[in-house]
Design brief:
Blueprint: H1 3-13, H2 23-26, H3 28-39, E1 44-48, E2 57-63, E3 66-72, E4 78-82, E5 97-99, E6 103-104, E7 111-112, E8 118-120, E9 137-143, E10 146-150, H4 159-169, E11 177-187, H5 191-198, H6 204-207, H7 219-222, H8 231-242, E12 250-251, E13 257-262, E14 294-299, E15 303-307, E16 312-321, E17 324-334, H9 345-370, H10 386-403
Helix pairs in contact: 5-9, 5-10
């Protein structure tokens, strides 16, 4: 049977308000279609401007089959290239990050300028034209300190995402930060399970004691519905907007990305056990209000984020296989903040390190149960899991439009 037709039929037959069938979470062929249809064609968050602060700074990322290097060139532009030498294909930059005046392949020392041009290839003959063997570029955009790449030959227009996200990010001046700490974990579950778990706080009270000290469980804060009728959230928006901080809930037409600012619990100002700020130096002088809560920013399929007055936390989602997903978390602080003076790593990271590990266990137990032959999709809570339903709607419509035409999915009632 044609796997593409099978996947589309399953999407179209999904019962309204219910989850996906088992193959979406475990089948290697379904996973391959996810990669080819979404991860190899959409804009993906990969890192931050501050990770390539100076010319020659670079970091690497692996997206499915594609090794990528992101580098700051001599004109201070951020560029992305396929991390594959044009000679015999060897990976050029093997480390996670580094700095180099040139990009030199360790195999035969083919040497590339930071803008991707081939500068040197030893003893290749008189008729060798170096201009034909530059590194292959990858679409690359930066917004508000966030670096996105797209592997497609023709990338979707990034301008709408920039227009929505940039006003929310700009006051935090995240280009003037540094990575204080980074954590990477592998969750033994499909990437969609990672996202489904993230998109609701129905599970929070029973699983996240540290996070629940400061982060609200209310669906109006964590989901996509109800925020505009929640008086506490509306009052918070009014307060923050009066301080020059864009805060109201906004979402793209196709549901792929959105931003909003939500209050934390009580007097809390940061994700710490005490609720006090974790960093003595705030991110930006433009963020001068107290109790601004957390800016929540989502961009499917690759990132969710929490941006506070004193620090920011980014989460990057990259599938490793049908049953494995890499989640990388980075804590950003002001570039001049001093560890041991302005912050301690333990206070800065404790809540989300614990929460990430708790979510890892949740996802892995979820994946384990879904692999049972007895599994069948169950109903989502309309009150608490609207965010999950919205994610599945985005996923289904994206797969449908790219694999089966432009018509949106029509599911059975």
């Amino acid at each position: 049977m044609d796997i593409q037709a099978e996947l589309l039929r399953s999407l179209r037959q999904r019962k309204q308000g219910y989850g996906l069938e088992q193959p979406f979470y475990s089948d290697p062929d379904y996973f391959r279609l996810d990669m080819e249809t979404i991860f190899y064609r959409d804009w993906l968050f990969v890192g931050h401007d501050c990770e390539v602060a100076r010319p020659g700074n670079y970091f690497t990322v692996q997206v499915g089959d594609y090794p990528i290097v992101i580098v700051r060139d001599r004109e201070k532009n951020i560029r992305a290239f396929h991390n594959s030498c044009r000679h015999r294909g060897s990976r050029i930059c093997a480390g996670e990050r580094g700095s180099s005046a040139k990009l030199v392949c360790p195999y035969h020392q083919w040497t590339y300028e930071l803008d991707g041009r081939l500068l040197f290839a030893r003893q290749m003959g008189d008729d060798f034209d170096a201009s034909q063997f530059s590194l292959k570029p990858v679409h690359c955009e930066s917004v508000g300190g966030y670096v996105f790449i797209c592997l497609a030959q023709v990338a979707p227009d990034f301008a709408p995402a920039r227009a929505l996200l940039e006003p929310y990010l700009a006051p935090h001046r995240l280009t003037e930060t540094k990575i204080a700490y980074q954590s990477t974990i592998v969750e033994k579950g499909n990437w969609k399970l990672v996202w489904e778990n993230n998109r609701e706080c129905y599970h929070c009270a029973g699983n996240h004691p540290e996070l629940c000290k400061t982060f609200p469980e209310a669906p109006s804060a964590t989901g996509i519905q109800g925020s505009k009728s929640d008086p506490e959230i509306v009052a918070h928006w009014d307060k923050c907007e009066s301080e020059g901080l864009p805060s109201i809930f906004r979402i793209s037409d196709n549901g792929q990305y959105r931003a909003t600012r939500v209050p934390l619990l009580g007097e809390a100002e940061s994700y710490t056990l005490s609720g006090r700020r974790a960093v003595g130096r705030q991110l930006s002088d433009d963020v001068n209000a107290r109790r601004i809560g957390s800016l929540l920013l989502y961009h499917y399929p690759g990132t969710w984020n929490h941006i506070l007055a004193d620090h920011a936390i980014s989460f990057r989602v990259l599938p490793l296989g049908p049953n494995e997903t890499q989640v990388t978390t980075k804590w950003l602080v002001h570039k001049d903040a001093v560890e041991g003076v302005d912050y301690t790593i333990d206070e800065l990271t404790h809540v989300w390190l614990e929460t990430n590990d708790q979510d890892r266990r949740i996802v892995e137990e979820n994946a384990f149960g879904i692999r049972s032959p007895a599994y069948e999709p169950g109903p989502y809570s309309p009150e608490h899991e609207g965010g999950v339903l919205q994610f599945l709607e985005w996923y289904g419509n994206m797969m449908e439009s790219r694999l089966g035409g432009d018509a949106k999915l029509s599911r059975v009632a």
